Amino acid sequence: MPNKYIRKCLHTRGNWSEETLQCAIYSIKNEGLSIYSAAIRYNIPRKTLERRFKTDNMKKGPMGPSCMFGEENEKKLSVHIKTMQARGFPLTINDVRVIAFKFAENLNLKHKFNKTTEKAGYDVSNVFA
């Protein structure tokens, strides 16, 4: 039976909302509050608040890079993997990497996958060698 992983620390990135960001920027512009004190008061990272204040970007977007496949194609890939598992063919990591590479090739997407091994992602054996 697999172990259930429990995170040791709480997720601290992106815990602020658009409303708190707007309130913080309003207080910086109109109330004369410094960026540092507004960051502490509204619990927003200082550099995030500084960057959003300078660029007038009030919208909270996704964290990290977007998916190479796109949301719809990523859902298709995950449904395929789950269907294979439900039918009694659980896929290994290498199987998923090969399927992802072939999926990207069939969709004619620009990718940075390894074309010699025809696998997506990085090779774990090369990292620890």
From TrEMBL:
Query: From the record, what ranges are coiled-coil?
Result: none
Chief location of this protein? nucleus
Q: Name one Pfam family in it.
A: HTH_psq
What's a single GO MF annotation on this record? Answer: DNA binding
The HTH psq-type domain covers 17-60
Location in the cell: Nucleus
What's any one GO cellular component for it?
Answer: nucleus
Q: Which domain of life is it from?
A: Eukaryota
Question: What is the protein's name according to its record?
Answer: HTH psq-type domain-containing protein
Organism field: Arctia plantaginis
